[in-house]
Structure formats: structure tokens, C-alpha cells
Amino acid sequence: MTQRDDNSIENKLTSIKYNCSKNTHLRVNQEMCRNCQKRPCCYICPAKVYSWDDTQSKLNVEYENCLECGACKVVCPFKSIDWEYPNASCGVILKNS
Amino acid sequence: MEQKEVLKFDAIVVGAGPSGVASAIVAARGGAKVLLIERSSFAGEKNMFGGAVFLSALKELLPNTWQSAPFERYILKHSWALLSDKTSCEVSYQSFDEPKSASVYRSKFDSWLVEEAKKEGVYFAPSTLVKSLISKNGHVVGVKTELEEIYANVVVLADGVNSILARDLGLRKEYEPKDMVLSVKETRKLPKSLIEQRFNLKENSKEGAAKNFLGGLAKENPPFGLGFLYTFEDTISIGLGVNLEDLNRFGYNPSDLLENLKKHPSVSAYLEGSELLEYSAHLIYEGGYKKLPKLCANGVLIVGDAAGFVNAVHFEGTNFAIISGMLAGETVLSAISAKDFSKKTLSIYKKKLNNSFILKDLKSYKNVMDNLYSRTNSLMNYYPKKAGEFFKIFTGASCKPKRGEFREFIKSFFSQRSLGEFFKDIWAFLSAIIGVLK
Ligand SMILES: Cc1cc2nc3c(=O)[nH]c(=O)nc-3n(C[C@H](O)[C@H](O)[C@H](O)COP(=O)(O)OP(=O)(O)OC[C@H]3O[C@@H](n4cnc5c(N)ncnc54)[C@H](O)[C@@H]3O)c2cc1C
Ligand code: SF4
Ligand code: SF4
């Protein structure tokens, strides 16, 4: 199988260019996330930005991969995500969509 | 030392998608001094859609130059397929008339629109993120960007589905997952000649095709969703919109569902040999007429996706965006001549929307999505499966008496579905149709 046949999200993300911002545009309230049962952000995000770190009991947020769709903020049951746009000119760059 | 000049415009438009550009053009054409602000470094850089723009609206906005838009292919062939596990039942339509829509890349199309706007005197500020609105005595009087404050008599919010500005100003409530559709899409490279062969398009032409798919996403717990495919010159887009509450409830990731769709034999045949060029995601708001935001307030108007103007059943969005933008542009001009930018004067915008197809259509479709959504399992699973079984008998030449086969089919049609469920389906579909017609 060539790399391009791999249909994982990780591989899909390699098709996108980003202009990375030094600071995050997605801030979560870790206290709320610790008490969150289903953690839907971890499975609905089309870029797999969120993952739960069991050992540190903390939500990892790989904001650099964000596609800026806005779904996580709507789905979060506790409104734990302070969702902003990345700084001007930062974030995802789409050329063929 | 000279005092820094206060930046002041007649109108500021936030967001350079089709709705924002349309507002800016109409206002500037009427003589207003307009600033169009966009957070990305070029217009369209953050935007994705299916997609094909509807030409009727574009012609209305730019009657003389619309032909020079960067069209990829004119969509003349449409099809809708019901997918079950191993079957596909398809209806297709072809137009030999003037094309009604054309596929475009948003990066190129939105940039082209902005160039047209500049020709009409619109000031364009890319790489500028509006962080908040400036209000004075209950009146919006300008915007605050990352760097400065800019003032205007009226601000048009054309900032798309996630409109943080409309939410912060209290024009709309927080979205609920059940009213949202999350879309993922892949643009895939495929040689031009292969596209023309596979989709039965004239060789070396600008003819194009669009396909929609219902079903084929998951065998159990099918989510409410619709797949789409559009042809471009030498790429195709394959994507999917799924109800956000269903993703939440069933624990799906939209990319996995797209993979299921891509593996369906009737879809994979089109994709064979294609290569991923770009992956993207976007939300669509389906709250519709029942959950419209406040459409204006003192010193502010809201247009396009930010106002929830889409018809998800027909994949219509750019036409709603352009026409609502134009109506907002006209409203800005009326307010300038009345020298009054209060909600009272700006509410002409609402009247204009009421008289246009925008609010008329949203009103006729106000229950359609609820009705269809309430029958998700029937739509996404049961009927696609049954359609497949029917045509299997119809076309299968199984060397068994047809009469017996059809009788078995009819028996199974009713026995696998309680009469109550069946009537609920009919009720939901009829209500959807009657809702539109009445
Ligand atoms: C998957 C999918 C498929 C679709 N397919 C079709 C189709 O085939 N045909 C069709 O007609 N419609 C389709 N639509 C709908 C259509 O894309 C939208 O209705 C249309 O783009 C709305 O235009 P808009 O100008 O209102 O918003 P947008 O196009 O979203 O533009 C908003 C702009 O505002 C900018 N912005 C946002 N916030 C700020 C800020 N604070 N400061 C500065 N700039 C800001 C954004 O960067 C963006 O450029 C589809 C939508 C989706 C998601
Ligand atoms: S869904 Fe919200 S509260 Fe739960 S883990 Fe994710 S961000 Fe935290
Ligand atoms: S905005 Fe979309 S892509 Fe970004 S983190 Fe949220 S769900 Fe993921």
C-alpha cells in the first residue's frame, strides 16, 4: 500500500497546509473535562484534535491540526471549550475546496 | 504631531464569502464607502463547500462579468442514489438547457469575487480578524480588530456559520447539535479524461456531474446524512454531511463514515485511482425558519450563513448568501439616504427578505428536516435496502416464478415493518411534501 492509500485522519491531515500560530485558539476547562463522561470532542472532531490522556488525567488539544469547523464547541455538553478563530492569517489554508 | 485619523466608513462588511462580497458590491455601487474585512490572507482560504455555485444569483449580482468566474465544470447531470449494503437504486436527471450551476474552488471563486468588488470601489482588508463589535448606547458603531478600531454607520455580519459576532451581540442563541450538520470532504485528483469517461461527459468539455447518496453510511444505527460528489476539471470532491447529534449519540467520527461511503461499490468505482489532494470540514446550520436569528439591530445587519440562510435539502447556500447580501446592500443605501441607522430603518431588510425566495423558501421548508429526521432509520436504512431487494427481483432472472418472488417481497415489506412504523413514515414524508406545497 502506498502512503496515499492510507485513509486515516492522520494521513488526510498531511494533505492540508497550515500557517501555524504560536498560541492556541482552543482553550478547555480541564476541571470540566475530567468530569465529562462521554468526551464527544474526542470522537467527533474531523481532525482528531482532542485526546484524553489517562495518565495525566488531562485533555490534550492539538490545536495545530484544527480545521476550524466549530463542531467541538457545539457538541461539548459542558461548554468547556473557549473557541476562537486563530489569529488573522494563521491556521488552515485551503486551496482546492 | 498630527493626530491619527479616525478610520470611518459608511459600512463595514465582516467576512468575504459570497454574502459579504454581495453586500459590499451593492452598497459601493450605490456610492457608499465600504470596507470589506476578511480574516484569511486571501478570500476563500478558509472556505469549503460541495460544490457548485448557482448561476441565477451570480448573474443578478454581476450581470456583465459573471462569465469570467473561475468555473471548473457546468453541472448538467444530477443523480440521487439510495444505497444499501450491496445495492444502489438511482434516479438521474440531465439538462440540455442552459447550465444552472457550476463547480468552483472557493479559494479561486471567492478571490475572484473580491477582485470584482474592488473594481466597484470596495476597500478590501485581508488578514484582518474582527475580534468584537464596538457598541455605543445600544448602537453598533464599528469593529475592533486585533490591531485597531474602525468605525462605520452600519456593520454587516457576513462571517459565516460560526458567527461569533452575532452570538456575542445576542442576535442568536448558542447552537444545538441537533440543528447542525458536520461535513467532511476530500478533493481527489483524477485525470480529466478519466472523469469525462466515468461520468459520461463530453470529451474535452466543461460538462460536469453532481451525485447525491442516501444511505450506505452504517449498517446499524444509521446516522442522518447525505453524501455528495461533484466533478471539477481534473479533480472530484467526495463528501458527506451528517447530523451532529447523531455523531454525538452513536459515537461516530465523520471521517470514518466518509470511508464507509467511499467503500460502497457504486461510489468506489468513481474514485478508483484517484489521489487525495485536500481534506476539509465545515458546519451547516439547519435550524431553519423556526430558529432564525434577529436579522437586524441598531447599526447592524446579518446575512448569508451567519443568518442561517441555507436550504439543506437542495444543497442551496451560495444563492441565499448572494441574494441576502444584495438585499442588505440595498438596505444600507436606504439607511444612508434616510441618515438613520437605527433598527427601525434597517428593518426594511426584513421586509425585503420576506418578499424574496429566501424567507418564503425557508418558511415552506420549515418542517421538512424535522419530519425526515424523525424517520432516520427508514430513510437511511430500510427503504434503500428494500429498493435494492425489489430491483434484484426485477432484474435478477433468478429462474424462480416472479409472482412468488414479488409476493414474498411485498410480504417482507410489511412484515419487517410494523404497520404503525409504516404509517409514521408515510405521514412524515407526506407532511414534508405538503409542507413545501401549501
Ligand atoms: C459541505 C458543504 C457543501 C455545500 N455545498 C453547496 C453547494 O454545492 N452549492 C451551494 O450553493 N451552497 C453549498 N453550501 C453552502 C454554501 O457554501 C454557504 O451557504 C455559503 O458559502 C455561505 O456564504 P457566506 O458568505 O454567508 O459565508 P462563508 O462562505 O462561510 O464566508 C464567511 C467568511 O467570513 C470570514 N470570517 C468569519 N469570521 C470573521 C471575523 N471575525 N473577521 C473576519 N473575517 C471573518 C471567513 O473567513 C469567511 O471567509 C455547502 C456548504 C457546505 C458546508
Ligand atoms: S466534550 Fe467538552 S467537557 Fe467533555 S472532554 Fe471534550 S471539551 Fe471537555
Ligand atoms: S473546530 Fe472542528 S476541527 Fe477544530 S477542534 Fe473543533 S471539531 Fe476539531
Mean pLDDT reading of chain A: 94
Percentage beta strand of chain A: 15-25%
What small molecules accompany the polymer chains? flavin-adenine dinucleotide, iron/sulfur cluster
Give the strand content of chain B.
Answer: 25-35%
**What share of residues of chain A is helical?**
10-25%
Major sheet size, sense and barrel closure of chain A: 2 strands, antiparallel
Say how many strands of chain A there are: 6
Distance between termini of chain B?
68 Å
Number of strands of chain B: 17
Runs of chain B in which pLDDT lies below 50 for 5 or more consecutive residues are none
Terminal CA distance of chain A reads 26 Å
Chain pair with largest interface: A-B, 37 and 51 residues
Mean pLDDT value of chain B: 92
Q: What's the CATH architecture name of chain A?
A: 2-Layer Sandwich
Helical element count of chain A? 4
Assigned CATH class of the largest domain in chain B: Alpha Beta
Describe the structure.
- The complex is a heterodimer of chains A (97) and B (438).
- Chain A has a single domain, classed as Alpha-Beta Plaits (2-Layer Sandwich), CATH 3.30.70.
- Chain A starts with 8 loop residues before the first helix and ends with a strand.
- Chain A contains 4 helices and 6 strands.
- In chain A, strands 1-6 form a two-stranded antiparallel ribbon. In chain A, strands 2-5 form a two-stranded antiparallel ribbon.
- By secondary structure, chain A is of the alpha+beta class.
- Chain B is α/β, with parallel strands linked by helices.
- Chain B has 3 domains: 210 residues, FAD/NAD(P)-binding domain (3-Layer(bba) Sandwich); 108 residues, 2-Layer Sandwich (D-Amino Acid Oxidase, Chain A, domain 2), CATH 3.30.9.90; 69 residues, no CATH class.
- In chain B, the strands form 2 sheets. In chain B, strands 3, 4, 5, 6, 11, 12, 13, 14 and 15 form a 9-stranded mixed sheet that branches. In chain B, strands 1, 2, 7, 8, 9, 10, 16 and 17 form an 8-stranded mixed sheet that branches.
- The N and C termini of chain B lie far apart (68 Å).
- At the A-B interface, helix 1, helix 3, helix 4 and strand 6 of A face strand 11, helix 6, helix 7 and strand 15 of B.
